[in-house]
Each structure stands twice: as structure tokens, then as C-alpha cells.
Amino acid sequence: MTLDTAFGTPHGAPIDYNWLRLLRREETSRTHLRLRPGTARLLRAFGVLAAVAAPAAVEAAIAADKAVDGDTHETVASPAQAVIELRQYTLHPGQRDTLIDLFERHFVESQEAEGMRLLGQFRDLDDPDRYVWLRSFSSMVARQGALQRFYAGPVWKAHRDAANATMIDSDNVLLLRPADAGASFDLSGLTRPAVDAHDDDATALVVAHIHYLQQPATPALLDLVRTQGASRWRAAGAQPLAMLVSEYAENTFPALPVRRGEHVLVTFTAFDDAAHHERAMAVAQEFDSVLQPYRSRASETLRLQPTRRSLLR
Known about the structure:
This protein is an alpha+beta fold. Helices cover 33% and strands 24% of the residues. It has helices at residues 3-6, 39-45, 48-52, 55-69, 96-106, 109-112, 140-151, 154-164, 219-235, 274-279, 281-291; strands at residues 83-91, 117-124, 130-137, 167-178, 205-213, 239-246, 264-271, 295-306. It has an 8-stranded antiparallel β-barrel.
């Protein structure tokens, strides 16, 4: 399937959100939202606040909620990374640089303007015709709205034919979420080069290990990954970036298919370069044997080189 069909008019009946009106004090005044103590965190976890409240009202509700129970620290994963897509595109031979140029010139800021976050764009070092990228959302509800706006908007319509011409398949998509509170990408201090900046592609290497599990990842397995995997990578001079697991919620934007029926655990680790990763391969081999009892099939390894405008680079 090409992007022309994947990003076409969404099919399926529209969802009726009228029940959300119960949360409004006045249907015509979104800035007068008032929430009972303790309610803000629950609604935020389900992505409801973003759908019904003005930003000022949301911040006030969250602050009041923390004041009631004495919580002064965020205890969940980064809200902007509640849902993450790992997208792998198979391209026509020789078309990857064409798509990268088009993507980084037209599809970065235009997507983020609709409420999503582009975490990284990459060349797969082991497949010259594969393009890999990551984008995140604050909730499944937010994902639906952001995708609807972008793919119905003028930027996508203006450039979709050129993008589609580079692609053979765009359906290899894993819908993921951070494994726990400390498992999302740390984006603090990261900046994205401007469109016309003369930065070279990054020499750093980001390695994604996709582990296929027999059942959903348990807290015990996550601890094992940290003690037997992440800690060993650090000892080898690498930097663990994130640990993600399958998001099982219904795909709220069916015009964009995602893979279903799998239990995956995906780790991302940064290395100085490909040679650094090669020197640390013993860690991967040891950890692979540790995970053997939990796996349903062989794991995949993606060696990813960040593009010039990738946030993770």
C-alpha cells in the first residue's frame, strides 16, 4: 500500500464525543472548565483534558490536583510521548534521499503544528531502500485529531504525490508506548537544525532492538531488560534512550494501518558510530540469550543513522 491509499479519506463512522460535554461547565465557554480534586490526573491519562479544555484551564486543574495530594513530581512518562509510532517504509530503489529531502523540507514543522512530535528520522544502514521514523502523541484521542488535520490539510495534499512516488510500502508500523515512567526519550536540550542549515548528517548511530514476546511485557521482564541490557550497554559506553512496548488500544485512525496481534518490546540505544556498536556486539549477544525464554520469535535489529534534521541525532 502506498501513502495515497494509506492517507486517503478515513473510513469508518465518526466517533461521537458528545459525552465529553458532561465535563464542561458551559458548552460555549471552554475556559470555565472546573474539575474536582483528583480528577485531572485520571482524565489526563486518558487524553480527555486535551479534547475538552483550554490550555489555561488544564494547567490550573493539574496544579490543583497536585496540590491536593502533595505530589510535586511528574510520575508518568512524558505526556507528549504517551503514544509512539515506529514507522518503516520500503522505498523504490534509489529514492530514499529524494524522500528525505521532501520530508525534512515539508513534513516536519507541518506535522508538529498539528500537535504531534517528530522524534527522529533515519536511514537504515542495512537496507538502502528503507526509511525509518518516529513520531509521538499525547494520547490516542490526540493522535486521531492530529492525523485527521494533517492528512486533510494543504501541506500533505500539495506534496503527497511526490512522496507516494518514492514508496512501495508504508504499512510496517508499530504502535507503541513507554514501558513505564522512566522509559520515554529524554528530549531535554535537543534542538532540530533549520531547514536550510548546512549541518551534515549525524555520525552517531541509534540501534533499535525489536523483541517479539510470547505475552505482554511484565514489570519483572522490564527490570531484567534494565539490569541485563541497559546497564551493560552503559558499561560499554553506549547510551540507552528509551524502552517501549506494544500499545493495544484500538487504532483510532484506521486510514493508517498499524500492525496488530503482536507483543513487542523495543529498546533504543545510542552509539558514537557504527564501529562503536560493532565493538559492543558481545552485549547484544549475551542479552539475546537472556531473553530467549520470553521470545516468540527472533528479535530484529535496526541500525539507524539520523538524518540531518532528526531531533534524535
